[in-house]
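Newbie here. two chains, one complex. Structure please?
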Amino acid sequence: MDQVDGGIGARRGTRLSRRDVLVRATYGLGGLVVAGGAGALGRPSSASAATAGSVAGPATDTTRLSGTAQPRSVCSGRSATMVVGETESGQAVSWRSRDGRSWDEHRLPPPTPGEPDVWGVAAHGDRFVAVGSLLWQRPIRVRPDHDADDRAAVTFTAARRQPAVWWTVDGATWEGDTLGVVDAAHAQLIAVSCHTDLLVAVGSTLDADGAQGDAGLVLVSPDGVAWEPGEVSGPDGAVLPEGSFTGVTAAGDAWFATSSDMAGGAVWTSADGRHWSLVASSRAWFAGMTLQGITVRGRRVIVAATSLADHRTSYHTSRDGCRTWQAGRPRARAMDAVDATVMDVGTVEGEIVVVGTRGDLPVIERGVG
Amino acid sequence: MGATERSYRTIGGVPLRYLRSNPVLTTYYARSTSAFEDKLDAFSHDLARAVPRWYGGLVYIATAGAYVNKPKYHGLGRAFDLDLVRWEHRTCGPIRGHHRASARYRRRRYIAVDALARRHFKYVLDGWYNAAHRDHLHLDDGGGGLVFNPGYRSDTVFIQAAANEMSDAGLVIDGIYGPKTSAAFRVLKNRLDVPHRVSSDAGAYRRFLWRLARRALRNRGV
């Protein structure tokens, strides 16, 4: 375990190694200065990047992670808060905090040779389960007949993307596996949630060349090891043009998931986590938006969305099982800027947390709702 | 390399527009990597210089989005969805389903824009590729070298459609690169005077695409 406390400086502009860690503890203590508004976080001085000032904004606490990693999902477990994402160099990693003051970073190894891509994480009893995909590529170099110079060679790429799952008991050592339960040549998982011991992971199958998502995918598991496909029924079946399921959560006895495609976002629901149907009214509400994630706080279901037209992030709340929505709450500060990109929304210790990037800098903001 | 390291509202000096959420054209602020924007600039330049004089200048390019924080290349700032190209006196409208337009000149114009995009982006997903792309062209620079790859459905359906529209090949557009498609492709290359090594010679493939596009923009067969 590579654990460093918040006082260790980050090296801005360098690649994030396993020994690089979150710049500053966040939860409960406050993180990087956000009271200064939009400019404070986006263009930090080298000093602030290195030492991470520790003043909380009046409404939220913000942590900027070191390097230029992309945090993609956050969840709260029995003993720790877990974030997963990807470093600038393309490594799948997790960041864990037991106390909100110090964080440690760990790598999620590829289950088999290939390029891992991690997108979601959930607590499952004493464990954490992360989901994503593994890309297997076989480059084929071809040299023109007339040209003996190898620099003229071009590369074909034969590829296959398979859903992948990782789990950890100690929050540090991850084991992974690819899931062979999907018939499609290319498939990926984007989000996962757990409720009453049932794990539900959502994502998409990809088109013939593996270039874009084309249909929603749901996998369910009682133990995180054995997975089976769920069923998705919408007006066009599970078809999501250039799209995917992007988030999943459980609220009471119901499950809810978000999707995004060319037309915009939508919310789906399931009574058992296995059989899913579209909440038809959500199509109109979320037209022109991509939905980054979904979470529950009390009786409220909260969705983070981004406008396809101008990239602005907005938050939407439902109190009636996702039938109707209200916009405007919660309200982030640091992550409500022109150069902010929200990747997920979650609930940690009763507070709404968003993760994403500000500029190219990885950020976690807590207490936004 | 950040996915959003560049923010811009023109490509190659041509304004970007968004027309999906509002009946009024709105300015679109795209975000992407620097390298990807450079490729878009080059594509825009091709769209301007490949057309005959009667098209007029490029007025705007409508997009359905570039950087979108979702998985795959849009999330990497390396993808662009093309809805419409507007010259002063002509339009190519993937968003209007021009790949299936009743007028052949419109379908050929679509082939031309498709071909010019392939000179810069390996993955160009068009209306023949799948239903998801019946209303836009998806461009991204994944997928390896800029050569023709018969193993890619996206490459094969394009050649099949181009052979049908430009030389009446009568192919079934199924994405399978079989003997009929290979023969029709050979005819196109011969008539455009391009070497056959388009699967290994990026220069030859780019030359093929350029010559194909210029003829298609003028509604001239091959």
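Moderator note: Chain A touches chain B through 55 residues (CB under 8 Å). The two ends of chain A are 33 Å apart (CA to CA). Thread marked as resolved.
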